[in-house]
Specification:
Shape: globular
Number of domains: 2
Number of strands: 10
CATH topology of the largest domain: Rossmann fold
Radius of gyration: 19 Å
Strand order of the largest sheet: 1-2-10-7-8-9
CATH class of the largest domain: Alpha Beta
Largest sheet: 6 strands, mixed
Distance between the termini: 41 Å
Structural class: alpha/beta
Order of helices and strands: EEHEHEHEHHEHEHEHEHHEH
Length: about 290
């Protein structure tokens, strides 16, 4: 299934940037999750696998996307959830889509292949899907974002957790020989490791630039400044962004322009990778700053 998301030109803070609205692809199989799962599902189908077994945290967009995709294509879905057993809105949605959840202590969770083998070695229908969908298949799907572009851009921005989406984007840029520079905003503290993760899938890193100072304390960490920025951006543009991924990316773009580290006249494309349900885990922080 080929599906092109639209690109919107959006004014904000006296600047204009283009946003590729992958968040509009599907309400649950959203953004880069749709891109990543596309070829994973095709690979599973080619091997006659009907049971997706995956991994994630309690507010994982990947878990919700996998649950929704499995239901859509009549597959069974199981997830190992990192940490103690809890209830929240995200996991409730996963259950509604039919996903089975196994809460797993953090030490055991570190070895995902071992968990898969221990519980599903004898299930001939089981198909391993890594955390966040990280895989070669995922990078192929994300590279298609670049194939859909009909005009050139100076800079292409994306947020990064595992680096899989960024690897796919860089693959697409290199394959087409574009002059675009890929600017990646890691959302984890110590995000320099993303470069190594990207190099596992794409060798030529000459058009890659990391901005590692916009993690706001680490994965899923926020600050009053970030929350206020997200509220301002969303109220001015009508485009919802989240505090885990896209909020940090758009904050970085705005900050880099204001510091003149990138030109305000440059043609900038931001990839909106969706995953907006992750905002549910941070609602209290928005309420406190209302």
């Amino acid at each position: 299934m080929q599906l092109h998301s639209p690109i919107h030109l959006v004014p904000y803070n006296e600047n204009s940037l283009f946003i590729k609205r992958d968040d509009l692809i599907d309400p649950f199989i959203s953004g880069n999750k749709w891109r990543k799962l596309k070829y994973i599902l095709l690979d599973a189908a080619s091997k006659n696998k009907t049971h997706l077994v995956t991994f994630g945290g309690a507010y994982s967009n990947h878990l919700l996307a996998t649950a929704a995709a499995a239901a859509k294509y009549q597959l069974k879905a199981t997830a190992f959830v990192r940490g103690e057993e809890i209830s929240n809105e995200m996991l409730a949605l996963c259950k509604i889509f039919g996903m089975q959840l196994h809460f797993t202590d953090r030490e055991s969770y570190k070895n995902k292949l071992e968990l898969f083998e221990k519980h599903y070695k004898n299930d001939e229908n089981a198909y391993f899907v890594d955390e966040g969908g990280a895989s070669k298949e995922a990078t192929i799907g994300c590279a298609e974002i670049i194939n859909e572009l009909t005009e050139p851009f100076d800079y292409i921005f994306c947020a990064a957790g595992t680096g899989t989406t960024a690897a796919g984007l860089l693959k697409g840029i290199n394959q087409l020989g574009l002059d675009s520079q890929l600017h990646v905003v890691p959302v984890l503290k110590g995000g320099d490791f993303i470069r190594q993760e990207i190099s596992n899938y794409e060798q030529d890193l000459s058009k890659l630039q990391l901005h590692t100072d916009y993690h706001f304390g680490g994965y899923a960490k926020t600050s009053q400044e970030l929350i206020c920025f997200i509220k301002d951006f969303t109220s001015q543009t009508g485009i919802l962004i989240d505090p885990i991924y896209t909020g940090k990316m758009f904050y970085a773009i705005n900050d880099l322009i204001s510091k003149k580290q990138i030109s305000k006249d440059a043609k900038i494309l931001a990839i909106h990778t969706g995953g907006l349900f992750g905002i549910l885990g941070k609602i209290d922080e928005f309420e406190k700053n209302s």
